[in-house]
Write a structure and sequence with these properties.
Length: 226
């Protein structure tokens, strides 16, 4: 089972942008285009998190937030508010009502994914997809053998994918070049360790802005930071 994210926004382009990026990041997406639909869907489907636009027809995002937080059945659903930069007062009110975070429009998909994951982690919602390894905006699906970065599917060779998988599975632990040569390439004796360096460079190029999660430990090897 994937974590369910309810996205409520009355702008179709924004709604589809958020939904597609969160879906690629490994979440199960529910949609609502107005306030009453957001409220009824939250009550009926119990999402793990709600991405809520403040300016919704039929019922404002603030009223949806207020109603959900006043109901013991839905009070624990974390809420990330979508606001325009000029809506500072509404943003403050939303936080006072119990919203967990906010993001201002326009926003980057990478920032949204990171904020969603941070809120879920902060409130202790477990990762319900054991096949997926995540670091920042990176999602490695071990079942499908594919990697998405901030919702975008990236092509990796089998060796690159295996190298990334080993590093993520051992995050925080420094892996020597000789260890990586053995575990990824199957070399029992140390040959040219530049093979590892070359593949790490390719990984970083493909990971883009998320490449800083791979740390070089000078004179020894590499690790994925915690």
């Amino acid at each position: 089972m994937k974590q369910k994210i309810l996205v409520a926004d009355d702008e179709p382009d924004v709604l589809n942008l958020i939904a597609s990026n969160l879906s690629y990041a490994g979440f199960d997406i529910l949609k609502a285009e107005d306030g009453p639909s957001a409220l009824s869907t939250a009550r009926a489907r119990s999402p793990h998190l709600l991405v809520l636009d403040l300016m919704l027809p039929g019922m404002s995002g603030l009223d949806v937030c207020r109603t959900l937080k006043a109901d013991p059945r839905t009070a624990s659903i974390p809420i990330i508010m979508l606001t325009a930069k000029v809506e500072e007062v509404d943003r403050i009110v939303g936080l006072e009502l119990g919203a967990d975070d906010y993001i201002t429009k326009p926003f980057s998909p990478r920032e949204l994914i990171l904020r969603v994951r941070n809120v879920l982690k902060r409130i202790g919602v477990p990762d319900e997809n054991p096949n997926c390894l995540t670091v920042g905006g990176i999602v490695l699906d071990r079942a499908r053998l594919q990697v998405t970065v901030c919702g975008k599917l990236i092509d990796f060779t089998a060796t690159e994918l295996n190298l990334l998988k080993v590093l993520i599975e051992r995050r925080g632990l420094v892996q020597s070049r000789s260890t990586l040569l053995n575990d990824v390439w199957g070399y029992e004796s140390v040959i040219d360790t530049r093979t590892v360096d070359t593949h790490i460079r390719r990984l970083r190029e493909k990971l883009g802005a998320d490449s800083d999660c791979i740390q070089t430990v000078r004179g020894f090897g590499y690790r994925i930071k915690e």
